[in-house]
Specification:
It contains 12 helices and no strands. By secondary structure, the protein is an all-alpha fold. Helix 8 packs antiparallel against helix 11 and helix 8 packs parallel to helix 12. The chain is 74% helix and 0% strand.
Length: 266
């Protein structure tokens, strides 16, 4: 076959090559999404019933005059978004390097490192968006959203997801085995979930420990989400929260791209 004919027969990449990478993950997800739909709605229902009504029944005065369920919901949405983002950025990334080697196949195609990274991150954001929207819908049905600003939670959790997913991509691409990923959950994800203001106000912590919560991306996401669902001002400035999360995302992108390039480019 003539070379020019072969080039014409080759399917053209979209104007934004990362969309081809995103399409790859969406095609795979199209075959498996049904398995996650039930849990996407069951998890928020059980969480609201267990923590909101179960534990909330013992919190008579609520938190700051707000019923405990209403106060808790935005923190749960933010922490769930973080956990989904990190879950999609650990074993899937490591397997694409170590086991199924999808990244190497994509690198052999006319795709740059940035395209591979951006496309996979876009899929992670898609997963976070769908899970967070489900959580938001369920909690709205329970009447736990007090403000018309509640939909703002969705762009907030997307920024939070990018802030945690990008550095996690770098970590997952760097570690030599999946045992390090378990350490990430044990020493980063679980402490953040417990102490970043999801289940109780950070002000309840000893003063010398509060800064540990303030430096985590999750606390900034929780504060913004809580402000949106309750219709109140956040504890910190909105631009400050957004810039802090954006800084995490940018630093994670730079680091992840460097590690990806070292692994993929000979």
């Amino acid at each position: 076959m003539d070379v020019s004919v072969a080039e014409q027969a080759r399917p053209a990449l979209p104007r934004v090559p990362a969309l081809a990478v995103l399409a790859h993950y969406l095609v795979g997800y199209r075959r498996t999404w049904r398995a996650g739909v039930f849990s996407s709605f069951l998890l928020p229902v059980l969480t609201v019933l267990g923590f909101g009504f179960g534990v909330g029944a013992y919190v008579d005065q609520g938190v700051g005059g707000v019923p405990y369920l209403d106060w808790l919901v935005p923190g749960l949405i933010a922490s769930t978004a973080m956990q989904v983002a990190i879950g999609e950025s650990t074993w899937p990334v490591l397997s694409n390097f170590r086991w199924i080697k999808t990244y190497f196949a994509q690198s052999a195609a006319p795709l740059r490192v940035g395209d591979i990274l951006a496309g996979h991150l876009a899929f992670v954001l898609f997963r976070v968006l769908t899970s967070s929207a489900s959580f938001l819908l369920v909690t709205a049905l329970f009447g736990a959203l007090r403000s018309a600003w509640s939909p703002v939670v969705l762009p907030v959790v997307l920024l939070l997801a990018l802030a945690v997913a990008a550095p996690t991509f770098a970590f997952s691409a760097w570690v030599p085995s999946d045992s390090y990923l378990a350490l990430l959950f044990r020493f980063a994800v679980i402490p953040m979930t417990l102490f970043a203001g999801v289940f109780f106000p950070v002000e309840s912590l000893p003063e010398e420990l509060r800064w540990l919560a303030y430096i985590t991306p999750l606390w900034h996401g929780v504060d913004l989400c809580r402000a949106a669902t309750l219709g109140v001002a956040p504890q910190w400035s909105i631009p400050g929260h957004l810039l802090y999360l954006a800084a995490w995302a940018l630093a994670g992108w730079v680091l992840a791209r460097r590690v990806f390039r070292r692994n993929l480019v000979v």
